[in-house]
From TrEMBL:
Organism: Candidatus Synechococcus calcipolaris G9
Pfam families with a match to the protein in the record: DUF1825
Xref: InterPro entries: DUF1825 (IPR014954)
The protein, known as: DUF1825 family protein
Amino acid sequence: MGFFDSEIVQQEAQQLFMDYQSLMALGSDYGKFDRAGKKLYIEKMEEMMDRYRIFMKRFELSDDFMAQMTIQQLNTQLNQFGTTPQGMFDQMHTTLERMKAELDQQP
């Protein structure tokens, strides 16, 4: 069975995509959130990024041809923006840490 034929992989991919879309839609109102809402949003983003990192690691560790092609395509796309998958995760981590620091400075 191929990597993408796995029902678990399909469910996790779908759930990650839906969660990401929901968080992005919600994030457009981030400035309107109270302190507790901002903290919860940051926590949910961190959780989603952890899940995404684990999901991507599954691709990397798989010997399935399509999984490897997906990693190759991601690397190519990110390279066009001057980054790597690790660079993308590092940038998101930096952004979330900055958001936390700003939150800590609020009364």
